Fold these 2 entries.
Entry 1:
Amino acid sequence: MRATSQPVIVRSHTHFPTIRTFSAWTPCVARHRMCKYGHMSNRFLLRDALAEFPPYVPGKPPASAPGLKPYKLSSNENHLAPLPGVADAIADAGRVPANYPDPKSTKLVADIAAHLDVDEAEIVPGAGASEILSALTNITLEAGTSVVYPWPSFEMYPILASARGAEKRPVPLLEDGRHDFPGLVAAIDDTTRLILLCSPNNPTGLSISTAELDGFMAEVPAEVIVVLDEAYFEFATDAEVVDGMAAYRKFPNLVLARTFSKAHGLAGLRVGFGVADPTIATALRQVIAPFSVTSTAQVAAVESLSRNDEVLVRAKDVAATRDQFAQDLRNAGLTVTDSQGNYVWVSLPDDDAQDFEAACAAQAVAVRKLSGGVRISIGPDEALDRVREVATKFAASRTA
Ligand SMILES: Cc1ncc(COP(=O)(O)O)c(C=O)c1O
């Protein structure tokens, strides 16, 4: 209960007097707690819930090893140089840093809408798909609501759910790394406001089929928003993979989250977008900070989209390398999923995954150990060759 009382002047550690209203909950001002991730909380009246937020752990940079060029295969970045016109557009836009960007990303929105053959009102640009996902949690979740998502999947999902104070309902993936749709349906109840799906799934790489999504959507209440996170869809080559746009046209409560970070190789500029029913799109625009997509990001995305055919050719090249690399690792004796992203997933017990990551680091290649395995982004041949060698020795040492 928050009792009221008279304001008092107190001296803060900065020596400027500040006015605070002391009340029955004052004791928490003095409470200093260390959360399990080592943060101090509540010294400054921060939310208690922060202590329970799962941390976002970014992919590690590569360790240095004498005589070896370092490679980072830990963040699913695109290792190819930007397309020529894109590099020029970035250089031009960077010349006028004093002006705010177009807050509506007018040209980018128009081009995406034309490209996807939807109305401009259905396109919401943001600083990466991350901002779209964050906005989706912002317009749907609060205390007393729940969000359902597969797990393991993109690490931001539980962080964003925690940020909104919603109940997290992670549904374990099936043994083979695919979404457990009956499990996801069973996790939905009348508190559920948001469902997140990821195709291809990060980190397992497996994607959702059209039949799976159709069957699932038939079970979800029509007013509950379902997000299909398609950050990696350009790399998918399996004919069964759901076509997000076709699904979007069928289901008004389906929202697509897409990005220029992966196939378009613009992760450092931060630009992505949502495709949503205009009512949902309007709500998303309400919570996204103005000017979040920089001028440079806007022109780079416009230019890259105009070269989408080239982007797709490159994505399919990456996919071909991925399939060969996955097969090589299988031949070496590892268990590797049929990934549809720009990465492969090696299933390993946690201790082995740790050792594998360390063995790659010793070769100046950063890969990503996660719960249940190691994720390796597709990178230059030299980097993949080093991982192949590590895999061969590693598998041999495990069978010796
Ligand atoms: C599945 C998935 N969704 C969304 C994102 C966010 O991408 P960005 O914010 O760079 O657009 C990522 C990034 O790695 C991802 O793996």
Entry 2:
Amino acid sequence: MTNKGMKTAFLYIDKAKHIGIENVVKPVCGAGDVLLRVNVCAICGTDGRIYQGTKDVTKGFLPQIKGYGEGRFIIGHEIVGIVEKIGSEVESPDYGIGDKVIVVTSVGCQKEECRPCREGNHNMCKNNHPIGYYYPGGFAEYILVQDAAVKQGAIIRIPGDSTVSDEHLAMVEPLSCVINGQDYLDISKGEYVTIVGAGPIGLMHGLLAKSKGAKVILAEYSPVRLSKSKEFGFDYYIASKDTDLVKAVLELTDGEGTDVGIVACSVNKVAQELLRAMAMKGRLSFFAGFPKENSILKLDGNIIHYKEVSIYGAFASNRPQFKEALRLIVSGKVSMDRIVTDVFPLERITEAMEKMLDKEGDALKVVIKP
Ligand SMILES: [Zn+2]
Ligand SMILES: [Zn+2]
């Protein structure tokens, strides 16, 4: 059989916002690898920052392993694909040729002496080599899931009776990160959950909290995003552009404060304020990262002390959280209907990136269909 090649969107590192479509040879499936045909790959906020040049993750990853040389990258990690080839030495895979699968992003070192890897938290491994950064990603017609990822169990089969669209299945990765964040927060029925930031991640936090029976308060600065988020029918909304966040939360909660707070935007002030709006024994998640050059926060330690407030972090997700996200999406418990707003062919990836990055536009999650 001849290698017909594949269409790929390369991100070139010479300047910001430089993406081009090229035809390259299809990756060769080694003995330990699995080759997937990509059905869809959604654009993550991180992809957007790499594209804009505000987040340089390419430095340590030069060149991508079994990639296409220096200076150009294939990014994209929210992948849904069909198994095309399984390497001869892949041990008892629980998926077969033709199966639809998703792929766990983080690939750990898998060394016995590495505690995160031993405990299955490959996202916490110091030598985490994520797919779509270190390894070539999903903005291409094919992706080679390489031996280290295969061995770790990165490939997860979609149940055969699933009727969920590929676009929605691509939301498993971001939802798995949201699950990771909420795993610490112990949200129970009837509790107030205040989320600041109505981007796709904040909205997914709202949907997940609603599925647990919480009362969701969503705060958002941008009027466009706020009005878009009203379609989701959460319990309360706060226009933080012209409202005092702390006061508004206290008013909505009869002065008690919110049981759970989730900072789903990279704004220091929001984290500082949300702490002041916490209820007794409240749980606060710093879900989003803070600006690298400005990550020091000013927090009132006595609120944490006297109110017994706990603060948690979250970064990426592990395999069990992927499986849980898949279960929630396939069962319809958490619907992605309103989250996925746009689908673009690979050739129009630049347009898709711009659409995703336009904070005044109406796009939430944008999906690429190679
Ligand atoms: Zn992502
Ligand atoms: Zn490790």
